[in-house]
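Researcher: Hi, I'm a grad student and pretty new to this. My advisor asked me to get structures for two proteins we've been looking at. I'm not sure of the right format, so I'll just paste the first sequence and hope you can take it from there.
Model: That works fine. Here's the first sequence with its structure tokens right after it:
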Amino acid sequence: MNIAQDLYPSRVGKETAEIMERVDPTAHGKAEDGPLSQDTLDSYDQNGYLLFQDLFSSEEVKHMQEELKNIMKRNEGRDAADVIKEPGSNEIRSVFEIHKEDNFFKGLSEDKRLVNIAEQLLGSQVYIMQSRVNFKPGFKGKEFYWHSDFETWHVEDGMPNMRAVSCSIVLTDNHEFNGPLMLVPGSNKWYVSCPGLTGEDNFKNSLKQQEVGVPDHESLEWLVDKADGQIDRATGPAGSVLFFDCNTMHGSAGNISPYPRSNVFFVYNSIENQLVEPFGGQKPRPEFLANRENIQPINPIKNAFK
């Protein structure tokens, strides 16, 4: 039984969604705690995300692209729970837990350029709660509906508070037309408590097409209206790095362009926000989706490429 207080109930059997004001801060740290200025922290607090285009050199980006190809090649014929395929095809959509299975990506997850930002945003030491590489092939990459990651991590994984940040390293140019991530600015300040209940082993379907724990149309329209009608797109050249708060509403359209989209994805969680029993009452999801074992704070390394 979960003895932690449920500050963000969701999927508790109600017939309609409910919008709740966020209890936790978004930016937990201060300017003196890391590389980000106070203006940058204020922007993150206001909008729920930050996009950088100069954290990595062009040579480092090429190195990451080669490592991405290696991951894809090693897993293309592998049938396992942590390798997610596109609905209706055998194309790889995601490969999970790369920070444990691959030495290069383990080092990348510990690179101080990423970790120091995550620590500053979360106001504490951090650990990797989840990692993966994502692929969205040209012509047939499927959409992913609007959602807050925290809603799933809270209900299905037992993340107590909104004190986690996702870091997405873009490894192919992200254009307006090849299914980039879309974000609703300011949506981090509100929590959509979703209707219904969570079925057993819901993750087996939700990793391919999320249908449970998603906002209804009215809630999403309300969030976008709050943002003065804005929906931002995380576009930029390969090597761009997006940090976005765990509760920022986001999604992506399908990719019918000829140009694939891929990224490396690390979820940094505060060491003070470790997972407890899932708040939805189900058994915890597998370790490759939500790390619980042998949790230790990251000791940042100076450069993963040396």
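Researcher: Oh nice, that was easy. Here's the second one.
Model: And its structure:
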Amino acid sequence: MMLFARTLVVVFLLIPTSWKKIGAKNSAIYEAEQAYIATDFEQSVRQHLGLIADHELRTPEVKFNLALSYQNNGQEEEAKKTYEEVIRSENKTLASFSANQVGVLEGRENNHKDALAYFKSALIQNPDNEMARYNYELLSRWLEENEEEKDKEEKDQEDQDKIEPSNYAKRMKAKADEFVDQYRFDEALETMQRALEIDETVAYYQNFIQYLSDVKEINDK
């Protein structure tokens, strides 16, 4: 009987300590949320770092919020590193959002091909991520159409050796563009591939063909 009584005393002594930890953790989570809502991003960074260091909350949700705080606080490199951790997590939704955010950061630094790769990764992680889809399609078309950007990213020798498209190739490209405008990407890709079989100058539009192939890969997921 005495042993039973002592056991009860120990249990009752432990419960308040547990409550205090839970209360402190919930309070820290609330303060981190409020700092972000108030757009005090420096404080939001501090609060979210505290959630990880003091309360061992290393969930993808906490890290994603930390990355957003870093990004809005002007700490782009720290934001990228933290987003990368979320991209490697099993939470596909947050992994997709994180890949899209890194794509935005890379795009702002004019790393357009890297940005495109991240937008594609975001869509592979979650094909329903409409913001990533919009960013991917917009940047893809811009890269394909913007000759000035091509000149920067391609070697001078490759530009000199680039073949000129025949009138047939131009017609097929225009036809494929019509399919794209109707979101009929598979038909656009088939049009370009079939044209390439009989006219090597269709290769002039290789970036466009690759874009269509990437979209098909994403849609097939």
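Researcher: Is there anything I should tell my advisor about the second?
Model: You could mention this: Residues 1-17 have pLDDT under 50 and may be disordered.
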